[in-house]
Amino acid sequence: MSSETNKLLCAILTSILFLLLTSFISELVYKSDEINKNISYIIKDNSKDEIEDPELKEEKINKEITNASLAKLISESNELIGEKFIKKNCSACHEFSLPHKNKIGPSLALLLNRKVGSLDDYKYSKAFMTKEANWDLLNLYYFLKNPKEWIPGTKMSYRGIKKENDLVNVLKFLSYNTADGS
Question: Which fold has domain 53-180?
């Protein structure tokens, strides 16, 4: 064999060895079988949520917490902690005192028992305008927990209050804010 043939065979064998070694290392690092299982699970889970009947979904949500259990949680909460949370997280977009003054979001003064999307001088999204509900504590609970789930199509970009303690403290503040008119 000539030296040129040896060089050619050596180059081919080196390329094959390099491809096998790269494939082996990438499987160790990325573990592709586990990734594919997780992705397929997530896709299946998302499609189920999109197909689910909205009435059944709301019925399921309403079974999680009742007015009585929410009232008990609120009675054990602290409105001052709720006010602190609101000043830190909500007051950049919402006003909480009278007279009603809108910012990026509508005024939330005297919010309890007000019809959803009812302030005359604020331009609500269509989702708010078509929602037939009043802002009671239970509706506020679900909205503040996950705004985009309770009113799909809302233009509010806030993702919701994830900690239960923060959420009930905010509800307590809103109930005092409404009762006092401050």
Answer: Cytochrome Bc1 Complex; Chain D, domain 2 (1.10.760)
Helix, strand or coil, per DSSP, at residue 160: coil
How many other C-beta atoms lie within 10 A of the C-beta of residue 82? 24
pLDDT at 55: 52
Q: Which residues pair with 115 in a beta bridge?
A: 134
What residue segments make up the domains of the chain, in order of their start? 3-48, 53-180
Alpha helices in 77-133 (DSSP H): 79-89, 126-130
Read off the pLDDT band of 179 (50, 70, 90). Answer: very low
Query: Cis before residue 99, ω within 30 degrees of 0?
Result: yes
Distance CA(156)–CA(154), nearest Å, equals 5
Alpha helices in the chain (DSSP H): 3-30, 32-51, 54-64, 67-75, 79-89, 126-130, 137-145, 147-150, 164-180
